[in-house]
Each structure stands twice: as structure tokens, then as C-alpha cells.
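#structure-requests
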Amino acid sequence: AKPKKHIFVCTHERPADDLRGSCKTRGGDAVLEALRGELFNSDLMPEVKATKSGCLGGCEHGVMMVVYPDNVWYSKVQVEDIDDIVEDHLIEGDVVERLLMDMGE
């Protein structure tokens, strides 16, 4: 079945000396696993799919996440933010404003 929403979480890793850092070193894998767990616990699978992605840009603002088809880009996402993203955004339909990527960044 085709999911209603698809969330991509950046898990891209840059070299340790890259000044921008990377989503992987900022916890991208843990964020993805927490998201998948919460989707399962909230009975949102298979309506919502979460997959890892390569670089989404904004490396210095990672962990990056994008929700389609909503075209909502989140930055600086931590494991602690997953409950709010699932409850507020995916269930209630309200964007988590504090995590929105400033597209001017």
C-alpha cells in the first residue's frame, strides 16, 4: 500500500574534519529508529513511512528531516522531539514550529 506520508531522515556522514558536521554524527540513526518505533507504537504504519536519506542539505543544522507530501522541513531534530512530531504533526496535523528549518539559513 502506498503511504499517505513519507518521512526522510538524514543519516549522511561527512568526514570528521568537515566544519559543517553531519546528521549521522548528530544522531541521525537514533532519530530514525525512534521515529520508526513511535510510528509503530502509534499504529501509523503503513500509512506513514520513515526511511533514511542521504544529505538533505543544511548539514550545519542537522539532524534534518522532511515530511512529504507536506513539504515540511525540520532541523536540529533530536530523539526527544519525536513524540511531538508524531503527536502534533502526524496525528493532529499541526507543524512543530520550533523545529522548522528556516529556509533562509
